[in-house]
Amino acid sequence: MIEISTSATTTTLTVAGDLDLAERDQFPEIAARVVGLRRQLVVIDMCRVTFMDSTGAAFLISLADAGRKRGGATVLRGADPRDLFVIEICGALDLFRIDTDHRCESGVEPSDFRRPDGASAPA
């Protein structure tokens, strides 16, 4: 499930559950709505994401790319290290600002993800 809320300057997407191939049919409509709102800042709240695959990452990357082309920014808030790793593997982590100060109030417990190369999680 993806909910969209707005303020004068920000669009916030709150994602709950899986962000993957099974959810891809809703991605074009959501992307069109977000782009149509033309806010300078897009915040993607991932506190309640349970799983993300490369399809979900591609969706987020497309939002960030569209925002950057308009001169805006995209922030990932509450992203699990495993989700950041998926985006990093796609070569697109630099499209996002990572909110390292946010602490999720409720939702999914952080995973115990460890990168295969043993390096620290992307931040």
TrEMBL record:
Protein name as it appears in the record: Anti-anti-sigma factor
Annotated organism of origin: Cellulomonas humilata
Taxonomy, superkingdom: Bacteria
Residue ranges of domain STAS in the record: 1-84
